[in-house]
Design goal:
Elements (H helix, E strand, L loop, with lengths): L1 E2 L12 E6 L4 H14 L26 E7 L5 H10 L5 H6 L1 H9 L1 E3 L14 H7 L3 H19 L3 E6 L16 H9 L6 H11 L4 E3 L9 H10 L2 E3 L7 H14 L3 E11 L2 H6 L2 H19 L5 E8 L6 E11 L5 E11 H21 L2 E4 L18 H14 L3
Parallel strand pairs: 2-3, 2-5, 3-4, 5-6, 6-7, 7-12, 8-9
Antiparallel strand pairs: 1-12, 8-10, 10-11
Bound molecules: nicotinamide-adenine-dinucleotide.
The site of nicotinamide-adenine-dinucleotide has 34 residues, from α1, β3, α11 and α13.
């Protein structure tokens, strides 16, 4: 990351606003109830990397300092999302009861979001989101920024951090106007529609709010928006949280490379039953996810001849419980052929929520100490880290540890 010379690391954390785009989705709901539970001591910080001893001297924002708001395009209430997660054995019902007032405060700060132009067929679409989606991009940006400003004023937070946990958008081929900030802004001025995730990213970065993209959607990964983050001196990170099959792949693949075992095929298959899975059942939405999932393995094995494939299917009865099967066919000394197979059965949202909380605390720290641009030290959290670098989870995590050590106070 780059650092301004003027700011020092010494500032104590103030109140931090966490703005969730996709505010009533499964991940956002687990983040909201999880933070409320952590704040009241009802939930243990299991799964939070920033609670490890390395981070104790860094001065990260405490859970009590976080205030929540967000955008969503649906009419579904937060309690309905929570009810689904209770029925699926993810959210404990006593936690939902004990934190009802926090949830109500959060729900009152959820505003109609910006619908992506490719998602017009959404079943429970908020009419205000459809209307926002039809406005010229400059007006969309002004409306989103007005929501950020109101949230900041109402909650009195020092900083707003915008996190994209909305449904994965349809895949788009690269466009010329994404290459530079000048071309992107000219396209906005001429009313050329852009992916909603990139409009949210532009709205937050241009207003000076750090931006985290937990999804495979484009967000701030466009070169134009990376340039904007550098110019406005705002930190950002993404793309696509590394929570399940890809996490295990990026732990295991370095083993084969280090021991010079030749991987012949790596076949992966995912079954998802939640709303995310339903969304990914659409081929255009699935394409964005598959690209992001295959990149890491290809780059780690560094051998274009290896057969790698990832499949995703929607299996409704699984609900939030994602199951992945991987079959790794490999060759050892004397040409002996062997295999490793694993099954990963995890709650998608319970895996994702602590990562979102970690990333918010890290983005707050980065902004507080004057760092900006891509947050390279967060690569361990993402399937396609914007700043590039190795996909090796151990190397990525070591970098995070070194970052923590260098920021100890
Ligand atoms: N759960 C994981 O382990 C994991 C890992 C990596 C990435 N992700 C990504 O996180 C995202 C959220 O996952 P989820 O399981 O919570 O999905 P979800 O479908 O439960 O929630 C998504 C929410 O986003 C809302 N939404 C859709 N378009 C929007 C827009 N343009 N603006 C604002 N809100 C919008 C939907 O109404 C919904 O409430 C997905 O993109 C998923 O691919 C999840």
């Amino acid at each position: 990351m780059t650092k301004t010379s003027s700011k020092q690391a010494e500032g104590a954390p103030g109140r931090v606003g966490l703005w969730l785009v996709g505010a009533r989705g499964a991940v956002a709901t687990c983040v909201a109830y999880g933070i409320a539970g952590l704040r009241r001591g009802l939930v243990a910080p299991v799964g939070l990397a920033t609670e490890a001893s390395e981070f104790q001297a860094v001065g990260l924002a405490p859970f009590e300092a976080l205030a929540l708001g967000g955008h969503d395009v649906c009419l579904r209430g937060l309690t309905q999302s929570a009810g689904e997660l209770v029925r699926n054995n993810i959210l404990p019902s006593d936690l939902v009861t004990a934190t009802a007032s926090d949830a109500a405060a959060y729900e009152s700060r959820i505003r109609p979001g910006l619908l992506d132009s490719a998602d017009v067929g959404l079943a429970d679409l908020h009419p205000a989101s459809a209307e926002l989606g039809s406005l010229p991009p400059r007006e969309q940006i002004a409306r989103l920024q007005r929501d950020f400003d109101n949230f900041k004023r109402e909650t009195g937070v020092e900083r707003v951090i915008v996190v994209n946990v909305a449904s994965t958008e349809a895949f788009r081929e690269p466009r010329a106007e994404w290459r530079t900030l000048e071309a992107f802004e000219a396209a906005l001025d001429s009313g050329v529609a852009q992916p909603a995730s990139s409009i949210y990213a532009y709205a937050s970065l241009s207003a000076g709010h750090p931006y985290i993209n937990f999804t495979p959607s484009l967000g701030a990964s466009l070169p134009a928006l990376r340039e904007l983050a550098r110019r406005r001196k705002v930190p950002h990170c993404g793309n696509d949280g590394k929570t399940g099959e890809t996490l295990v792949k990026t732990v295991l693949a370095p083993l084969f490379v280090a021991r010079r075992l030749r991987v012949l095929s790596w076949q992966g298959y995912n079954m998802l039953g939640n709303r995310d899975g339903e969304n990914l059942a659409d081929p255009l939405h699935r394409e964005a996810k598959l690209r992001s999932k295959d990149d890491a393995l290809r780059s780690l094995l560094n051998d274009p001849s290896v057969h790698t494939k990832v499949g995703i299917d929607y299996v409704p009865s699984l609900r939030d419980w994602k199951t992945a099967f991987d079959y790794i066919h490999f060759e050892g000394f004397l040409g002996a052929q062997m295999s490793l197979q694993f099954t990963w059965h995890g709650s998608d949202s319970a895996l994702a929520a602590p990562l979102v909380i970690d990333l918010v605390r890290l983005a707050d720290l980065a902004a507080r100490v004057g760092e900006f641009g891509e947050m390279h030290h967060t690569a361990a959290f993402f399937k396609s880290p914007i700043g590039g670098g190795t996909h090796d989870f151990h190397a990525q995590f070591e970098r995070l540890r070194e970052y923590a050590a260098s920021h100890a106070r």
